[in-house]
């Protein structure tokens, strides 16, 4: 009897860890929502859900690009600085109208992406180092372009930041649309499959004749463009361009969302649904602690615990 | 490698380099920003907003050049070095540096400046550079309170007097440095509490948007506020304290959470203007009316004082950044051999709906 139980245990533990990695993030979100419904006054209101969704939108958009970078066995540390660059560009070009400003900001993000991708694909710099260089340079350029916070008074930007369609804020609609698009790209397109193959094993992908360099550059361009979009939306919400503080530590929030969502750091796999849930989980965690007026340092500790759990689950599964 | 392949790769690289260069040129060259309608303050705007001393002269400990151990000099022929701690990216630092420069120009003095960009090691080498370049007198806005030993040793060797502004250095006045000029942050918190009591009638629940953690400005503005509330308005309860890290975005996010979970909140005390403006954004977004939640902030930037005029903010306690006139007067007096106070606490003014419109020009 005991013998049998002992022999069965490792299998159960492994299966449990697999389940934890696959669905843990969704369970975490469900638990947090239920706990908040029980414990937090006024939690169950449309207003509250709207607030959480609007606050998570920029983080989520950045995390989508980060998921692609991590899926290709890389990482993009420059995303926060790209947000700062994009907010500077928006402010500088708003005189031509919102659309021009948006396009210039997105081009700015793409240019940083090209620089990241080229360093990685052509020169062979490690992604963490290449994007670290652009993280430093990006904020520098942003602050040269716009040295201090500047208010945005453009009515079109205001409506982008606080407007809604059928009661759903534009920010949330855009984030949802981008999540669907990136999810589709990963699953259904050649680019998506090539990206995963490269993340799995770059030498093998090279031997198989995949356009490794082109795909890698494109990955970082997409990440840069998404970060630039997030920067524009965050500026619209704030009604100001603030390159000094916008996007600081955003790279860490995005990596957290991706990792907690079950995407392994070793590449070859991207979970977009999990990334969305990961971003929501961190948002709900922060919101819960703020609403209950717990010390801010607790938020950081709670986030750390969630990250350790997620990485533990991923590692144990990898050992199998 | 085949020559054609090599050439193609070189072409790709050239293209990438060219697109990067073009992108940067575009960004810098043909921008056209929105006409914001607000003008930056000029010297004439701010002429009447100079600092006044709060502590009566002669009351506190004083310092003379004989005690300090230097030789008298005429400030007219001297070179003055100014070391700024943080990038001039927020209204306070912009106004502070501008005030030092304007006063040096007004007095016709030679001024050398340096900015440490929030890196303490850079500030130490900045100050040593200033001394090497021939500064006879130093004005320092310190980033840290500690770690100034090396600077003091080289300054003492050359008998160069130092005045610190806005933050204090943990060292001996009249020996390591001459005197400190700055605001009393505890009293700023107290006066914010007085404004909050007036605005709310002394009853209700209030929230505090704290500044960055581990910063003496945060702890002192909090202590002054809470002590005053406890002493004068037992009917006011602080029910919420979260950090907004002195940034507008964080102030907005935190306030959005606050008004969801505590819709009946009476007032919000923001420990700087930027977080207060973020709170205003959040209240607007939640469909609240101007004045429904009383907001009191500290700093006195133009945007916040405009917020009082518009009815969103109830009161602003000033933290005056215009150190130029007082710093140079102190240096002048000291160099001539007169007594100067070791601790010069400045009198900050404040804005409420009674004076906001008239005094908008004084805001920085």
Automatic annotation (TrEMBL), chain A:
Signal sequence residues: none
Topology class, membrane: Multi-pass membrane protein
InterPro entries, per the entry: ABC_transp_permease
Record bears the keyword Transmembrane: yes
Principal place of residence: membrane
Compartments (UniProt record): Cell membrane
Recorded GO CC terms: plasma membrane
GO terms assigned for molecular function: transmembrane transporter activity
Keyword set includes Transmembrane: yes
Keywords: Cell membrane, Membrane, Transmembrane, Transmembrane helix
Segments passing through the bilayer: 23-44, 56-72, 92-112, 119-146, 166-186, 215-234, 296-314
Superkingdom to which the source organism belongs: Bacteria
Protein's name in the database: ABC transporter permease
Organism the protein comes from: Streptomyces beijiangensis
Organism placement in taxonomy: Bacteria, Bacillati, Actinomycetota, Actinomycetes, Kitasatosporales
UniProtKB/TrEMBL annotation, chain B:
The keyword Signal is assigned to this record: yes
GO molecular function annotations of the record: carbohydrate binding
Residue stretches making up the Periplasmic binding protein domain: 88-339
One GO CC term on file: cell envelope
CDD domains in the record: PBP1_galactofuranose_YtfQ-like (cd06309)
Secretion signal, residue range per the UniProt entry: 1-27
Main location: other
Region (Disordered): 31-56
Keywords: Signal
Cellular compartment(s): Cell envelope
UniProt-listed PROSITE patterns: PROKAR_LIPOPROTEIN
PANTHER family registered for this protein in UniProt: D-ALLOSE-BINDING PERIPLASMIC PROTEIN-RELATED, GALACTOFURANOSE-BINDING PROTEIN YTFQ
UniProt family annotation: Belongs to the bacterial solute-binding protein 2 family.
The name this protein goes by in its record: ABC transporter substrate-binding protein
Native source organism of the sequence: Streptomyces beijiangensis
């Amino acid at each position: 009897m005991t013998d049998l139980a002992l022999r069965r245990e490792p299998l159960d533990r492994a299966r449990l860890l697999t389940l934890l990695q696959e669905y843990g993030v969704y369970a975490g979100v469900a638990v947090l929502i239920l706990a908040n419904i029980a414990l937090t006054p006024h939690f169950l209101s449309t207003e509250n859900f709207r607030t959480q969704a609007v606050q998570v939108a920029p983080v989520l958009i950045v995390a989508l690009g980060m998921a692609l970078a991590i899926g290709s066995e890389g990482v993009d540390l420059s995303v926060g600085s790209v947000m700062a660059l994009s907010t500077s560009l928006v402010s500088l070009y708003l005189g031509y109208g919102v659309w021009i400003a948006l396009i210039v900001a997105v081009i700015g993000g793409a240019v940083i992406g090209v620089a990241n991708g080229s360093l990685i694909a052509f020169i062979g710099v490690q992604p963490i180092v290449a994007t670290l260089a652009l993280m430093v340079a990006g904020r520098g350029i942003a602050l040269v372009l716009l040295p201090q916070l500047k208010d945005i008074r453009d009515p079109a930007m205001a409506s982008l930041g606080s407007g809604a369609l059928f009661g759903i804020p534009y920010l949330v609609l855009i984030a949802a649309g981008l999540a669907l698009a990136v999810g589709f790209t990963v699953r259904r397109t050649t680019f998506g499959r090539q990206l995963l193959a490269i993340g799995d094993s770059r030498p093998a992908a090279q031997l198989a004749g995949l356009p490794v360099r082109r795909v890698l550059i494109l990955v970082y361009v997409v990440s840069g463009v998404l970060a630039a979009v997030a920067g524009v939306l965050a500026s619209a919400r704030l009604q100001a361009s603030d390159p000094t503080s916008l996007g600081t530590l955003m790279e860490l929030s995005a990596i957290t969302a991706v990792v907690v969502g079950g995407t392994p750091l070793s590449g070859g796999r991207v979970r977009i649904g999990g990334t969305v849930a990961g971003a929501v989980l961190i948002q709900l965690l922060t919101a819960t602690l703020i609403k209950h007026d717990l010390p801010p340092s607790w938020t950081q500790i709670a986030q750390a615990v969630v990250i350790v759990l997620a990485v533990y689950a991923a590692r144990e599964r990898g050992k199998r | 490698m085949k020559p054609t392949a090599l050439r193609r790769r070189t072409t790709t690289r050239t293209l990438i380099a060219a697109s990067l260069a073009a992108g940067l040129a575009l960004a810098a060259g043909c921008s056209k920003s929105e006409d914001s309608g607000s003008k930056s303050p000029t010297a004439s705007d701010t002429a009447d907003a100079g600092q006044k001393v709060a502590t009566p002269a002669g009351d506190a400990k004083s310092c003379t050049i004989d005690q300090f151990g230097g030789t008298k000099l005429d400030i007219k022929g001297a070179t003055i070095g100014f070391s700024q701690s943080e990038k001039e990216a927020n209204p306070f630092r912009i106004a502070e540096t501008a005030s030092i420069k304007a006063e040096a120009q007004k007095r016709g003095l030679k001024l050398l400046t340096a900015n440490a960009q929030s890196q303490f090691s850079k500030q130490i080498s900045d100050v040593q550079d200033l001394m090497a370049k021939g500064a006879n007198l130093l004005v320092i806005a310190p980033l840290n309170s500690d770690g100034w030993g090396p600077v003091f040793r080289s300054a003492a060797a050359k008998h160069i007097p130092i005045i610190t502004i806005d933050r204090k250095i943990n060292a001996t006045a009249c020996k390591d440095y001459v005197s400190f000029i700055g605001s009393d942050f505890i009293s700023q918190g107290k006066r914010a509490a007085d404004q909050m009591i007036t605005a709310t009638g002394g009853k209700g629940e209030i929230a505090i948007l704290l500044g960055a953690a581990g910063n003496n400005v945060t702890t002192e503005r909090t202590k002054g506020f809470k002590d005053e509330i406890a002493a004068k308005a037992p009917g006011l309860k602080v029910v919420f304290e979260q950090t907004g890290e002195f940034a507008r975005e964080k102030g907005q996010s935190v306030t959005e959470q606050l008004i969801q979970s505590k819709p009946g909140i009476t007032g919000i005390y923001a420990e700087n203007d930027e977080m207060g403006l973020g709170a205003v954004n959040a209240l607007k977004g939640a469909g609240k009316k101007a004045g429904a939640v009383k907001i009191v902030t500290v700093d006195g930037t133009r945007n916040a004082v405009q917020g009082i005029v518009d009815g969103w903010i109830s009161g602003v306690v000033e933290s005056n950044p215009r150190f130029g006139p007082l710093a140079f007067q102190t240096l002048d007096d000291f160099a001539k051999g007169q007594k100067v106070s070791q601790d010069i606490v400045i009198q900050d003014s404040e804005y409420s709906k009674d004076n906001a419109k008239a005094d908008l020009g004084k805001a920085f």
